[in-house]
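Case study 2.
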Amino acid sequence: MIRTFLKQFLSTALSFLLVFAAAPMEGGAQQSAPAGSAGYSGDGAPLSANDLQQLVAPIALYPDALVAQVLGAATFPDQVAAASGWLQQNGNLSGKALTQAVDAQPWDPSVKALTQFPSVLDNLAKNLSWTSALGEAYHTQAADVMSAVQALRAKAYAAGNLKSGSQITVVQQSPQVIVVQPTNPQVVYVPQYNPAIVYGTPYVTPGYSTAAVVTTGLLAFGAGIAVAAAINNSWGYSYWNCNWHGGAVVYGNTAYYGNNAWHGGVYGSSVTAYGPNGVARAGTAYNSSTGTYARGASTTTAYGKQGVAQAYNPNTGAYGATHQASNAYGSYGSSVVSKNGQTAYTQHQTTAQGSVGTVQTSAGGKGVAASGAYGNAAAGETANGNKYAAANGNVYKNTGSGWNQTQGTSHNYSGASATNSAASRGYGGQERSSGSSAFGGGGGGWQSRAASARGAESRGGGGGWGGRR
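Prediction:
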């Protein structure tokens, strides 16, 4: 039973990660309009005007250039998440040093531009489901999204909640167009407001939440952002605008529709490199429908193959990672999967001598199974300390009062001698940090959880699963 469980668990966990990482990935961003951009170009039915207004409500009152940057960046939600994390890790950078460091990153210009507005970038990263939906809507219904922004500005303007001041200047150019610009072109203030109040009509945006939303219908503003440091960069604030009459974002005087790799909300990128010693591949993928994004890499040389992959869904908290390899001696690998605070770590190895697999959970459960020239064996321990072991058809359990046989040739052990006798026959022993084990091949018994997460697998023809580190 334990051996079957381990086999099923390893198969499920590893196949999920490997299939996800091996999924076809398409080329990255383009700056031209997608086919059919004058109308709807997505899959299924387009969003209604009300749906689009709900979607753009959190950013409709931003200055025009900032609206343009957000709509463009929202078509690259995986880059938004990466840029936000990078910005938090490099919080000591500012001014020219920050712009130079951002220049070196592989992100789209719209994502780079938002590094000048950390609070906006952080909000997009924390609400990836909404960000993904906003990006897909803009890419497939650009003109409709721009109209939705103007419809909301008109409502806020009519309600007296959108007006000029020391932070922004509001100009109604026509009945259909309201322009919002910084009062001081060198300093940009990001409006903070409650979408459920500011428009006079309550809007609830799916997949969007913020803990710092203002409670009144009035606009509030944080500290001004000096944009002069990035003014000479090709992605700087001054390079962005909105063409309200043309129904599109403008980047460098050209209509910009974002990431043309969107296909039903799934896109990715990959790269392959060939050299005298072998081939290396790497790629990323994102699915806006589920909010899952992943990355993977592999190498193939004369000495063997290795592959790694990660998948994460910030909406559900589900995470998985795997490292798989093979060489002349056999194959081996390790994986970790987690969700809702529960984590499981697995390892496996197959050589000419046989196969072995282990699993350990954050709740305290443990298991190991092995097969080889001398038969099959498995052992496990539940979180409450109950132990189970099996070998070649004989099954034993120990719930605290000694080992008792439940299947196979009749034997019964009790007390300390039971534990020793069972272990001596290869039915498993107590957890330990060193010494021999029926399943270690001369290694160190149960491996620690930390080592398992690192993928500290044994290599070659034996060596067990590593000891405590």
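The radius of gyration is 29 Å.
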